[in-house]
Amino acid sequence: MNEMPAILGLAASAARHAASRQAVIATNVANADTPGFRARDMDAFSPDDGFALRRTSAAHFAGATRTDASHEIRDAGADPNGNTVDLEDQVLRGIEAARVHDRAITVYRSSLDMLRASLGKR
C-alpha cells in the first residue's frame, strides 16, 4: 500500500513533463517562419526525477532538483533565414510527447482504480 502514492506522484510528474514538452513543441511550430528562431526541446522524462533526496537536517547537502528547462536542438539544420524549425520533426516529437502523456494518464487511472477497489469504492 505504501507504493501507491509514489506511483501516483510519478505518473503525475510524467504527465506534467509531457505537457510541458508539448508546449515547447507548440512554440516551435508557431515560430516556424520567424527569422532566426532556434527550435527547442526538453530532455526525456526520467523516473528518478520523481524521487528527490530529502534532507533531515539543514546542515545536510540538498540533492539536485528536477528542472523542466528546454534546450536548443543542436543538430537542427537552419534555413537561409536562420530558422531551425523542421515541421516534420516537430510533428514526430509532438506525437512522442502525446504518447508519453497518454501512458502516464493510463498508469494514473489504473492506480486510482486499484486504490478504489481496495477501499471497496469501485
UniProtKB/TrEMBL annotation:
Residues 63-85 are annotated as: Disordered. InterPro entries: Flag_bb_rod_N. GO terms for cellular component: bacterial-type flagellum basal body. It comes from the Bacteria. Residues 11-38 form the Flagellar basal body rod protein N-terminal domain. Residues 68-77 have a biased composition (Basic and acidic residues). It is found in: Bacterial flagellum basal body. Pfam families: Flg_bb_rod. This is Putative proximal rod protein. It comes from Jannaschia rubra.
